[in-house]
C-alpha cells in the first residue's frame, strides 16, 4: 500500500467516552476505562480511535459545551491519564483522534464570562453580540438547532448573543483574528501531546452571514420535523468564508507529521466537496454521512456511491460512516440480517470507514423511558423522537449486572438484549456479528485491494449491490443481497468468480464460484475474481 497514509488505509472507531467503560463505578465511562479496553480494540483490528469530547464541561450537551479546551473533565480523568492512554494506544499501533469543538464554547468558559461581563471588554468580540432588531426582539429569525431562537437576550449588557445549538453553547466569532489564534493554540496543545488528529465538530456552522440576513422558509418543512427545519440555513451555515478558516486549521496540522483532519458537516455532496479545500488544502476527510440517510435498498445505495465517487475532487480521499452518537443505530435502521450486509458494505467501499462503538456487536437503540432522558435536545423538543440517548447507551461487555461497563448504576440503561448482545458471548461465537466485523477488518488489512484499491461498480439488478475492488492486479468482488430472498448474480462475461474469501454468515470460505454467485437471503460475499479464459 505504497504511498497511502494511515488514515487512508485505516479504520476509525468512534468512542463515546461516557459510555465505553467506567473504571470507578460512578456509572460514567472514563479514560482509564478506555485504556483498559485497548486490548479489545487491537484484537478487533481497528487502526484509530476517535474519542468524543473529554474536556472540562458543564455537560449541557455532554461535552460539546467545552469550558476549557486544554484540560480533561474530572469525570473522565486527568491529563496524566490522557497521556498514558495515548502512550499505550501508540504502543499497540492505535492512533488517537480527539474531538475539536471550534464553533462554540460553554457559557461557563472564561472567555464567554469575560465577553458577557461588559460591552467594552477585550473579549466582547470573541462571541457574536447584537442589538435587538429595530422593532425589538432578536436581530434575525435564525433558529437554534436544538429548538427556539438562536439569539439569547443578556439583560446585563442589553444585547443578544448567538448560539447555533443550546443557549449554554454560545458561538465563537471566527471572523475575529484573536479567536482563530487562540483556537489554533488549542490544536497545537494536543498535537504536541501526540494526538494523531481531530474530528472537527459542526464545521459548516463556523462562519455566519456578515450582513445578518434572515434565513428563508424551508418549502419542504412538514409538521413533525424538528422546529429549526422550518428555515433553510442559508445564512447561518456553509458560508464561503468558512473554507479560509478550515485551511487555517489545516496549516496548523501540516506543521506536524502525518496527522489527520476530519470535518463534521451534514451537507449534500456538491457542498460537501468544497471542504476538501482548494487544492486539497482543507479537511483530509469531510465526513460522508449519506449512507445514514439513504433508503436501505440496492438502487438507492448504488446511487449514493455513484454520486459520491463522481463528485470527489481529483486526489480527494473518500470516507464512509454508518452511524454515530447523533443518529439511530444501523441495527435499528435495517434489522439484524441486513446489519451484517451493512458491515460488509462499510468495510469494502473505497474510502476510510468510521465505525461507531457497539455497532460491531449489533447493539440497537435502547428504549429510554421519559424519566431516563438525558439529552437536552429531547428535553427541549420533546415528542418528535429527536433524542440521542438511545444510541448512546453503555457498551455491553458481558451479560452481568452493569454489562461489564460499570460496577455502579449506568448513566443510561443497558439494552434489553444484554444477554446475547455483548462482547464476551460474541467473542466466543465464531458466527457472531462481532466475529464478522473482526474477519472483515482482518481481510481489509490483508488485502490492499479493499483498503486502497480502485472501485468499479457491476450491474447487478434491483436487489443486489456488486462491485470490484482492484489493486496491483488483484481483484476482489463484493456482492451484497439487500433483500430477504435468495438472489443470483450473473458475472459479466469478462470475469469469472474464484475462491470465496468471506461471507456474512462466516460459513462459505473457500467455496469456488464460477460465472454466477448465488446469494442467500440477506447475504453478502467477498470473492477473488479473475479474467475469464480468452477474455
Ligand atoms: C455535533 C455533535 O456531534 C453533536 O453531538 C452536538 O450536539 C453538536 N454538534 C453541537 O456541538
Ligand atoms: Ca467513571
Automatic annotation (TrEMBL):
SUPFAM superfamilies: (Trans)glycosidases, Glycosyl hydrolase domain. Its EC number is 3.2.1.10. GO terms for biological process: oligosaccharide catabolic process. Pfam families: Alpha-amylase (PF00128). Transmembrane segments: none annotated. CDD domains: AmyAc_OligoGlu_like. Residues 14-392 form the Glycosyl hydrolase family 13 catalytic domain. GO terms for molecular function: alpha-amylase activity; oligo-1,6-glucosidase activity. Keywords: Glycosidase, Hydrolase. Belongs to the glycosyl hydrolase 13 family. This is Oligo-1,6-glucosidase. It comes from Sorangium cellulosum (Polyangium cellulosum).
